[in-house]
Specification:
Layout (H helix, E strand, L loop, with lengths): L18 H11 L5 E2 L14 H10 L13 H13 L10 E5 H13 L5 E6 L3 H9 L3 E8 L5 E2 L1 H7 L4 E7 L11 H14 L2 E5 L15 H4 L5 E6 L11 E7 L4 H13 L5 H4 L2 H5 L3 H5 L6 H14 L4 E2 L8 E2 L2 E2 L9 H12 L1 E2 L1 E2 L11 E4 L4 H17 L3
Parallel strand pairs: 1-13, 3-4, 3-6, 6-7, 7-8
Antiparallel strand pairs: 2-9, 4-5, 8-9, 10-12, 11-15, 14-15
Helix pairs in contact: 4-5, 4-9, 13-15
C-alpha cells in the first residue's frame, strides 16, 4: 500500500533545495566539486557572526534553558519594538510582536491564521517561494502580480489592481526583494498602500533584507507610510548578522482590525510553546550593532566587492542582461533565448551544473516564467565569483545557436 500526499502539497515546490540541489549533492558525493550559488547562506562562504552576537550568546545562555513567553523574551521584544519604532512604525507594543524560528515559521503562522480554504494572497512574481508555498499549505491560493524588470523590478500597480477579487485577503510585498535585490520606490509603496486601503485588505511586508542596503540607497518600511492600515511586518537576523542557522525571525502587527488574526497567531504560537530561546538572547545585541553589517556593503567590504565582480563579469557576456541589485546579495539576470539553445530554465541550469559544476536556480523556482532567468547568489569571494562568471561566459558561448 502507498499512501497519497495531502492535496495541499500539489503545487508546493522548493527549488532552492529541490532536484537540481539533489543532483549537485550526488555529484559532490561522486567527487565532483560544485560551486553552490543556490541559497543565501553567508556562513558557508566564510562569513562569520559579529563579536557582539557571539558575546551575547555565550554570556547569557543559561537564561534560555526554560520556556520563554509565547511572544518571546522580554529583552528581545523590547529591542524589536525599539528597532521598528526607529523605522517609523507607530504605536508598537511588545504584545504586537511574535518571535519565532525564522521568518519561515512566521509566514506559516500568518497564512494559517489568515487564509481560509480558497482565500487568495497576492504575492509578487518573481517571489521567494516560502510565501507561495505557505499559502498553498494553508489551503489558500497565491495569486501572482508582476514586478517589472523595465522599472527596476518595482511592482506593477495596474497588475495588482487586476488581480484583486472578492477572495483576496491580503497583499504581500518583499522589500528589499529576493530574488531581484530591488528596493521599491517610495511612491510605489504609497500607491500599494492606497490599493490596500481602497479594497480593505491586509498588508504583509517581508523586510528581512532592510539592513543590507548598498550605500546611498533610500529605504522606507511600508507600515510607516500607512499607520491607518492593518499591516504585518516581517524581519529577522539571518542575513544581516550571519546567523541563518539560528532561525531568528519575527513579525510585528500594526494598525487596526487585526485583533482576531493576532489571537489566532497567539494560539499557534502557544501550540509550539515558544520560539528558540537561545537565538533570542542575541537580538538586543544585534539590533544595537549595525557596524559589522554596514562594513560589508561599502567599498572594500565583501558584499560590495563581490557584487562589483559579478556585475562586471556578467556585463561582458553577450546575450545576458540584468537590473543591478540595490540590496541583499542576489541578482536575477535574463538570457536571450534567441541566441542560445536551451529548452527551459531548468535545462539551462542542469547543463550549467553538469558542464561547469555551478549550481543556480532558474526563474521558475521563484514563480517567474515570463522569460528565461536565473538567480545568482553573490556570496563567494570575488576571485571565485570572477572565475564563475568566466565559466558562465564559456558555457553560453558553447551553447549559441
Amino acid at each position: 500500500m502507498i499512501f497519497s500526499q495531502s492535496n495541499r502539497m500539489t503545487h508546493v515546490h522548493s527549488d532552492i533545495r529541490g532536484p537540481l540541489f539533489t543532483e549537485a549533492l550526488r555529484m559532490q558525493a561522486a567527487g565532483t566539486p560544485v560551486l553552490k550559488l543556490n541559497t543565501g547562506n553567508p556562513a558557508s562562504f566564510g562569513f562569520s557572526m559579529p563579536q557582539s552576537v557571539r558575546q551575547a550568546l555565550s554570556a547569557h545562555m543559561d537564561d534560555a534553558v526554560a520556556y520563554c513567553g509565547v511572544h518571546g523574551m522580554d529583552d528581545a521584544l523590547s529591542a524589536i519594538r525599539q528597532y521598528h519604532t526607529s523605522c517609523g512604525l507607530q504605536n508598537v507594543s511588545e504584545d504586537d510582536i511574535f518571535i519565532g524560528n525564522g521568518v519561515s515559521e512566521m509566514a506559516s503562522m500568518i497564512t494559517t491564521a489568515l487564509l481560509s480554504d480558497g482565500d487568495e494572497l497576492l504575492v509578487p512574481s518573481p517571489c521567494y517561494s516560502l510565501w507561495s508555498n505557505s499559502a498553498y499549505i494553508s489551503g489558500g491560493k497565491p495569486v501572482f502580480y508582476r514586478c517589472a524588470p523595465e522599472d527596476d523590478w518595482n511592482p506593477d500597480l495596474k497588475d495588482i489592481e487586476r488581480k484583486i477579487t472578492s477572495r483576496t485577503k491580503a497583499i504581500l510585498i518583499i522589500n528589499p526583494n529576493n530574488p531581484t535585490g530591488a528596493v521599491y520606490k517610495k511612491e510605489v509603496l504609497q500607491a500599494i498602500a492606497d490599493i490596500v486601503r481602497r479594497h480593505r485588505l491586509i498588508l504583509l511586508s517581508d523586510e528581512i533584507y532592510d539592513r543590507l542596503l548598498l550605500p546611498d540607497v533610500e529605504y522606507t518600511s511600508i507600515a510607516s507610510l500607512a499607520p491607518d492600515l492593518p499591516c504585518v511586518t516581517f524581519n529577522g537576523l539571518s542575513k544581516s548578522h550571519i546567523i541563518c542557522g539560528f532561525r531568528c525571525g519575527w513579525m510585528v502587527f500594526t494598525g487596526p482590525a487585526l485583533d482576531e488574526i493576532k489571537a489566532a497567531v497567539s494560539h499557534l504560537a502557544a501550540l509550539r510553546l515558544c520560539g528558540n530561546a537561545l537565538t533570542q538572547l542575541v537580538i538586543p545585541a544585534a539590533l544595537g550593532d549595525f557596524a559589522s553589517t554596514k562594513a560589508m556593503l561599502v567599498p572594500g567590504g565583501r558584499l560590495y566587492e563581490q557584487r562589483k565582480t559579478t556585475l562586471e563579469g556578467l556585463s561582458s557576456i553577450d546575450g545576458v542582461s540584468f537590473v543591478p541589485n540595490k540590496a541583499a546579495f542576489y541578482l536575477f539576470p535574463s538570457i536571450d533565448t534567441k541566441q542560445f539553445g536551451f529548452q527551459s530554465g531548468h535545462d539551462f541550469a542542469l547543463k550549467l551544473l553538469h558542464e561547469k559544476h555551478i549550481l543556480v536556480i532558474p526563474g521558475t523556482g521563484f514563480d517567474w516564467d515570463e522569460d528565461l532567468r536565473f538567480r545568482i547568489v553573490m556570496l563567494p569571494e570575488p576571485k571565485v565569483l570572477a572565475g564563475a562568471m568566466n565559466d558562465i561566459r564559456d558555457f553560453l558561448y558553447n551553447h549559441r545557436i
